[in-house]
Design a protein that fits this description.
single chain; 0% strand; globular; mainly alpha
């Protein structure tokens, strides 16, 4: 159950519907993070742009290693 108000995928319209569709195409479903920011698609687009800028300077192996180490250090179980 969400603690913040979100726009469910079946009720999405306009820009957020496009962002949900991008998730579906790339990951097969709408990510929890995407839905969490559904009321602020401007922030979601900026966050995605930041991630793309960071990844553009790393190969896949480097990116995966960095995210795995960061998750371990943060004791993330997600």
């Amino acid at each position: 159950m969400a603690y913040v108000r979100t726009i469910p995928p079946d009720q999405a319209q306009g820009e957020i519907a496009e962002l949900y569709e991008q998730d579906r195409r790339s990951a097969g479903g709408v990510a929890n993070f995407t839905q969490m920011l559904s009321l602020r698609p401007d922030i979601l687009r900026a966050y995605r742009a930041l991630g793309a800028a960071i990844r553009s300077h790393l190969d896949v192996r480097q990116y995966e290693l960095i995210t795995t180490v960061a998750a371990a250090r943060l004791r993330c179980s997600y």
